[in-house]
Amino acid sequence: MSKKGLLFNCGKSKVMHFGEDENTLVMSFLDSVSSYTYNKHERIVGTGVVRCDISSFIFEKLEEKGIKTHFIKNLNNGKMLVKKIDMFKLEVIPRNYAAGSMVRNYPVIHGTRFDPPILKIDMKYSNDPMLNDDYIVALGIATKKELERIKELAHEVNNFLSSFFLEKELLLVDFKFEVGRNEKGEIIVGDEISPDGMRVWDRNTYVSMDKDVFRFGKGDLVEAYKELQKRLMV
Ligand code: 5GP
């Protein structure tokens, strides 16, 4: 197979290709939007590019802050050049306010602030079951030491992004990110950080600028993502 050929699908919303050399990959963001919980799947033109642009911007900000990511550069048109890393089969989800599955599954009022923020960790498997420390170690997903570092990193990323968003009058409610090991064995941020896997509310109106717009049919998703992009980049 050609080194430039398709490498693998990355969920429903991205595909990976080989990059310039064997240490890099090109991540292509598709115009595919899904909600497993609400059993919705649509192609919405324009979402791939704006997700890639927002994610690239966030990765650049994290790098500036000294938080390592797999990001190399935004190739534009919904493509991102990244370092190849060994991904953990985990979805790491910091929560600052109660929303989504937290409110559906637990007795907590929508919008309740968590201070300090809390972490949920799901396995990237089947219907993404929630894990605890014992499960993560027993299933061989990460060692105890790696898990400690993943949690520490999650709080670093969340603290930085929450403050950055607040400067833009935005509340970062919750978000999902993924982690992997680089060639030095360091745990770094991979995949994407974008409104596809995040809840963001306007600080004053509580209007959503994320995939909830799609989940609950609250308007034009591309416009919502572009509004978030504009607010973040000002
Ligand atoms: P919840 O636990 O409420 O379903 O999700 C919490 C946050 O993580 C939300 O911002 C949601 O969009 C994100 N999230 C959780 N699982 C996934 C996933 O499998 N894919 C994506 N893109 N985001 C996820």
User: Which kinds of small molecule does this entry bind, naming each only once?
Assistant: guanosine-5'-monophosphate
Q: In this structure, how is the largest beta sheet organized?
A: 5 strands, antiparallel
Total strand segments: 14
User: What is the H/E string?
Assistant: EEEEEHEEEEHEHHEEEEHH
Write down the overall geometry: globular
What percent strand? 25-35%
CATH superfamily of the largest domain, called what?
A: ATP-grasp fold, B domain
The domain tally reads 2
Number of helices: 6
Major beta sheet, strand line-up: 1-2-3-7-6
Short description:
This protein is an alpha+beta fold. It has helices at residues 47-64, 101-105, 133-138, 144-167, 212-215, 221-233; strands spanning 6-10, 14-18, 24-29, 32-35, 40-43, 71-76, 79-83, 86-87, 90-97, 113-123, 170-175, 178-181, 187-190, 198-202.
Describe what this molecule looks like in 3D.
This protein has 6 helices and 14 strands. 30% of the residues lie in helices and 32% in strands. Strands 1-2-3-7-6 form a 5-stranded antiparallel beta sheet, with helices on one face. By secondary structure, the protein is α+β, with helices and mostly antiparallel strands. The site of guanosine-5'-monophosphate has 14 residues, from strand 9, helix 2, strand 11 and strand 14. The site of guanosine-5'-monophosphate (5GP) has 14 residues, from strand 9, helix 2, strand 11 and strand 14.
